[in-house]
Amino acid sequence: MIKGLYETHLFVENLERSIEFYAKVLELKQAHYEEERRAAFFWVGKPKEAMLGLWEKPKSEIDKRHFAFSCDKEFILNEATGFLKGHGLSPYNFLNDGTDIPMVFAWMPAIAIYFSDPDGHYLEFIAVLEGEARPELGVLSYEEWTKRDKLT
Question: Tens digit of pLDDT for each residue in 67-79?
Answer without folding.
Answer: 999 999 999 999 9
